[in-house]
Design brief:
mainly alpha; single chain
Length: 174
């Protein structure tokens, strides 16, 4: 569904006025600029799909803030769920994993050689799994992961979105 000229102008004006404010809020809550940008973009995507609700709202700015809070909450749930899945899986095979600090975990070795990788070999490719594990388990920023993979930031963001969707779809079937 495309927006008509009036709707497009309405969303554009809100975007110009609210983008930086929403980004600052999301960045404070998520403590990750890339995730914050993704959350704000998702908020405006939702606003575009629900343009009639936004325009009918007595407070369109408040509507955006509330939607952003919901998007952030969903992102946090998704990240916590994926983190729990990976930590649980890793700890099954490495009883001392929970006591190790990040410095004691060799990312490249564990990602490529961990027995946990076998569990997910049918769900994701080795490269997809390595990228997701870096982001979720080892807390790399998307920018750091992109640099590690030698790919542009936007490409990395898109890959992560696709990987999450693939994991979600696969895990829902199980």
């Amino acid at each position: 569904m495309g927006l008509d000229k009036d709707q497009d102008q309405f969303i554009s004006a809100l975007y110009e006025e609210m983008f930086n404010k929403l980004l600052a809020y999301a960045n404070t809550v998520l403590a990750n600029r890339s995730l914050a940008e993704e959350a704000v973009q998702e908020t405006f995507r939702i606003a575009c799909t629900k343009i009639d609700d936004v325009k009918a709202s007595e407070n369109p700015r408040g509507w955006l803030v509330l939607t952003l809070k919901n998007v952030i909450r969903n992102m946090q749930r998704e990240l916590a769920s994926l983190n729990k899945l990976f930590v649980t899986s890793v700890s099954i095979y490495d009883e001392n994993f929970m006591e190790k600090t990040a410095d004691q975990i060799d990312v490249n070795t564990r990602v490529e050689n961990s027995e946990v990788d076998i569990l997910y070999s049918d769900l994701l490719s080795a490269e997809e799994y390595r990228l997701l594990k870096m982001i979720v388990l080892y807390k790399y920023s998307i920018k750091e992961a992109a640099a590690e993979f030698g790919i542009p930031l936007e490409t990395c963001k898109k890959r992560i979105q696709r990987i999450k969707k693939k994991m979600r779809n696969t895990l829902e079937k199980i």
